[in-house]
Amino acid sequence: MVMGGLIGINLSAWALDVADVTREWTPEGKRLAAERAKLPAHDEMVNIPAGTFLMGSDRKVDRNAYPAEFPQRKVYLDAYEIDTFEVTTVQFLKFVLATNRHPLIDWQYDGGNFQETMANHPVMHVSWFDADAYCTWAGKRLPTSAEWEKAARGEDGRIYPWGNEPAGLSRANFGRTGLSGPVRDRPERLLLYPPIISVDKYENGVSPYGVFQMAGNVAEWTADWYDPAYYKKAPDRNPKGPEKGTQRAFRGGGWIDSTPTVRPAQRNGTDPNTKMNWLGFRCARDVKEPADGSQPSQTGLH
User: Fold this and answer.
1) What pLDDT score does 19 carry?
2) Which residue, among 130, 115, 138, has the nearest Cα to 32 in the 3D structure?
3) Which of 128, 280, 140, 270 is nearest to 214 (CA)?
4) β-strand 284-286 against 279-280: which pairing, if any?
5) Among residues 83, 102, 128, 127, which one has the least CA distance to residue 8?
6) Which pLDDT does position 12 carry in this prediction?
7) How far from chain centre, in Å, is Cα 218?
8) Which of 74, 103, 143, 288 could disulfide-link 284, Cβ–Cβ 3.0 to 4.6 Å?
9) What is the pTM of this model?
10) Euclidean distance between CA atoms 51 and 254, whole angstroms
11) For 245-272, how does the pLDDT look when each residue is reduced to its tens digit (9 = 90+)?
12) What is the dihedral of CA 135, 139, 143, 148, to 10 degrees?
């Protein structure tokens, strides 16, 4: 296999932030990528109807709740659509080729390509800016944190997408180390492909709206700036996060996370330039209410 060339690398932390790493296509690699981009993609979306839902956590119900999730309250959201699945590697490849971007760091085979077995895995090693640019290119946008949480939990304040039963490996991909052997002695292990899975797995772990993998696999960027105290002052109608900040919010936890961290109410933030092997995204878009007052179609709802 022809390995994609590395321009710069900083192996400093687990799980690896590769914001300073860049790969380049070879001519043959780019030709192969154009063929790979023809592979089927998971472009389905689910309609989330307008209405209220319970956002945040109640410590009496969820003993794993963190202060950033308080207070729990009813929030109204307009109707919107959200991707049924996390954005996949092959979906992101289409965007990379259309916008003349470099390959991602884990696309290290055959001149800048990913292995074909990775096509339906969630894309990773993408910054908030990468995710935002992809969604815009696709005619969509990143979901707000509120939209993400409603799509994951439904209206009733359940702890997990499937209910209040604890997360287990039969419903979500989490709690994995992804390494064998000491990282200290072999830092190149940090670039090994982590134990993520195809985005359409775990049908028994979908949300009330039929959205897949809102807990585990990869955590997901949202549109919001992150402020741990935001819920204390947030509006109860279409909240969009703080007006400014230094970190962008992500939700859902990833393959490396623990049971409490993959709860959809759990929220956190990081520098928007961060690129991690446990962090991806999905997109959303507005829904226009029909002129006759009927409900928007709910394509893809289980």
Assistant:
1) 55
2) 115
3) 280
4) unpaired
5) 102
6) 35
7) 6
8) 143
9) 0.87
10) 28
11) 999 999 999 999 999 999 999 999 999 9
12) -100
Distance CA 7, CA 286 (A): 39
Task: Tell me the two tokens of residue 64.
Answer: 């794993």
Nearest-Å Rg of the Cα atoms of the chain is 19
Report DSSP state, residue 118: G
* % of the chain exceeding 70 in pLDDT: 83
Using DSSP's 3-state secondary structure scheme, residue 24 falls into strand
- Look at the block and give the residue holding tokens 């900083």: 10
pLDDT bucket at 301, cuts 50 / 70 / 90: very low
Question: Which positions ≥6 away from 160 have C-beta within 8 Å?
Answer: 153, 166, 167, 171, 172, 205, 215, 262, 263, 264
Cα 189 to chain centroid distance, Å, stands at 23
Rounded Cα distance, 47 and 155, in Å: 14
Token pair 């022809």 is found at 2
Measured CA to CA, the distance from residue 175 to residue 60 in angstroms comes to: 25
Q: What is the amino acid identity at position 96? A: V
Per the prediction, the chain carries an average pLDDT of 87
Which residue is associated with the tokens 């962008």?
Answer: 248
Q: Cα–Cα distance between 292 and 126 in angstroms, integer?
A: 41
Asked if 117 and 39 count as a contact pair (C-beta separation under 8 A), the reply is no
What does the angle CA 204 – CA 163 – CA 278 come to, to the nearest 5 degrees?
Answer: 65
* 3-state SS record for 205-246: HCCCCCCCCCCECCEEEEEEECCCCHHHCCCCECCCCCCCCC
Closest CA to 23 of 34, 36, 37, 8: 8
* pLDDT band at residue 296 under the 50/70/90 scheme: low
**CA-angle at 275, arms to 231 and 209, nearest 5°:** 50
Distance CA 281, CA 175 (A): 19
